[in-house]
Amino acid sequence: MRKRLVVLTGAGISAESGIRTFRDMGGLWEEYDVMEVASIEGWQKNPQLVLEFYNQRRRQLKSAKPNAAHLAIANAENDFDIYVITQNVDNLHERAGSSKVMHLHGELTKARPVNNPNNIIDIGYNDIKWGDNIDGYQLRPHVVWFGEDVPMLTEAAKIVQTAEIFAVVGTSLNVYPAAGLLDYAPKGCPIYLIDPNDVNVWRNDVTFIKDKASVGVPAMLKMIKDETP
Ligand code: APR
Questions:
Q1: Catalytic sites, residue numbers
Q2: Closest ligand 1 atom to the C-alpha of 16?
Q3: SUPFAM superfamilies per the record (predicted)?
Q4: What is the residue with the minimal CA distance to atom 5 of ligand 1?
Q5: What is the rounded CA–CA span in Å between residue 49 and residue 155?
Q6: What is the pLDDT of residues 23-71, one digit of tens each?
Q7: CA angle (63, 197, 195) in 5-degree steps
Q8: Which atom of ligand 1 is nearest to the CA of 21?
Q9: Cβ–Cβ contacts within 10 Å for residue 22, how many?
Q10: What pLDDT score does 25 carry?
């Protein structure tokens, strides 16, 4: 019986695919004011600026490729019952072949009219332009902005509670409620954290693999596979 491996990922897992992180050196929040381009207030103040911010990231995603970390997680589905919970809005886990991926903060390749968060349409890598609408309601990125709820949080927490192994990859654990998912890992469930930098974690039962994801993720998967009877 394959063990349930839950993997919580952040921007760091896509860094080696050329997708910028947020709080790293050269991260997006060094260049942009997060409240201007990734918050509900920013949308209300200057929606065209917000649309352009996500259009740029969506265009860049088209030419990005999954890296060895995304691929290792996808391929490990042969050995583990894997559930990916990602904070990322890129589609690199899916393009690597992962079959169970939950996007806590939404998806760049999707959009929705401002009046109905459930009317989600696939736009691929196309721009959303000011004036694009459904029944007269402007289209917006299907992304969770600061100041908005994370609708999938409860479902994500339930999944983490089923983990037999829990891995955290490429996240500074700075943003709640996503970071709080760490508290839902069952007592005694092995927890691995992969990051080339130090990440301060309040638990003392975490195995740190201080490396970039493309090296640390395959190494972790080999480690747990060898340990799994
Ligand atoms: N491999 C693994 N981790 C890496 C790599 C790499 N090659 N490069 C950087 N990292 C790590 C950084 O050390 C950092 O701990 O990835 C982490 C990225 O942290 P953040 O930039 O804060 O990104 P993230 O944690 O995903 O941010 C969470 O904040 O702005 C919001 O909605 C946005 O989903 C995002 C959320």
A1: 105
A2: 7
A3: DHS-like NAD/FAD-binding domain
A4: 12
A5: 32
A6: 988 899 889 999 999 999 999 999 999 999 999 999 999 999 999 999 9
A7: 60
A8: 21
A9: 19
A10: 85
Tokens encoding 58: 């969506």
Q: pLDDT tens digits, residue range 142-193?
A: 999 999 999 999 999 999 999 999 999 999 999 999 999 999 999 999 999 9
- Residues 75-95 as b/e (b if ≥16 CB within 10 A, e otherwise) read ebbeebebbbbbbbbbbbbbb
pTM as predicted? 0.97
Q: Is 109 in the pocket of ligand 1 (CB under 6 A)?
A: no
Ligand 1 pocket residue status of 143, Cβ below 6 Å: no
Distance between Cα 24 and ligand 1 center (Å): 7
* Ligand 1 pocket residue status of 210, Cβ below 6 Å: no
The best mutation among 9, 16, 19, 24 to test binding of ligand 1, ranked by most ligand atoms within 8 Å of the C-beta, falls on 24
Domains plus CATH for the chain? 1-19+66-105+149-229 (3.40.50.1220)
